[in-house]
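User: Structure with IPE, tokens only please.
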Amino acid sequence: MNIPFLKNKQPEEALQYPVDHTLDHVAIIMDGNGRWAQKRGLPRAAGHKEGLSTVFKIVKAAVKCKVNVLTLYTFSTENWKRPKSEVDVILRLPKEFLSVYLPDLISNNVRIESIGDLEKLPAHTREAIEYAIARTRDNDGLQLNLALNYGSRHEILHSMKELITDINAGKLSLDELNEEQFSTYLYTKDVKDPDLLIRTGGEKRLSNFLLWQLAYTEFWFSDVLWPDFTEVEFLRALEQFRQRNRRYGGV
Ligand code: IPE
Ligand code: IPE
Ligand code: MG
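Assistant:
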């Protein structure tokens, strides 16, 4: 049967975006770009580029679900091990992404932030991020945290060094140091720990992402490769999260 008015209807139009007040922060390991491209006989770079439209789709879905913080693993401290040509492609993506989507992010009231060691990035990457951070500073909707040149062990070590400097300067007391104070030395000091971690692409590992912050986070793994990841999948993860029973060691 041919129903013309249904033919052009996108399934997304019918989606519902439930708001869950217990879900403050979602973190995503966006994995599978390279395999997506290789499956199609394309260079890995094509997968990274294709993944950009997924980023925007998922940001918009997170906005609709009134998530407060979305942290995206964009480039890890270990990703420097890849061939220089691939690293160059990945590090050009933030600028490409922002040149296309920044106006839409602004109209969606998104505030951009970053975590990671930005100083080691090429100037064009750093400047694009810094511009977007400055441009969205007054927005008070979703905080979009881009983890760039981020590695959790590097973050913890970096925090330890600053902390010891403060102890030596008498600004902090070693005897009184607690978990809450330690957290203020991390890149994530301004946000709550993630409630939900999503990893796409089928691997079941953290790959040096937010090791301290994920202590009591709920994990959801998807086999879908990042460029194929959809709002429907994202909403499924949120729905699963609502069914979890978080005990934090209690009963
Ligand atoms: C994730 O996709 C993106 C980054 C790590 C920057 P990959 O490039 O790791 O894709 P796969 O895992 O090789 O398929
Ligand atoms: C994790 O993916 C890093 C990002 C998504 C940015 P990787 O593809 O680098 O992780 P491994 O190498 O499979 O652990
Ligand atoms: Mg990978």
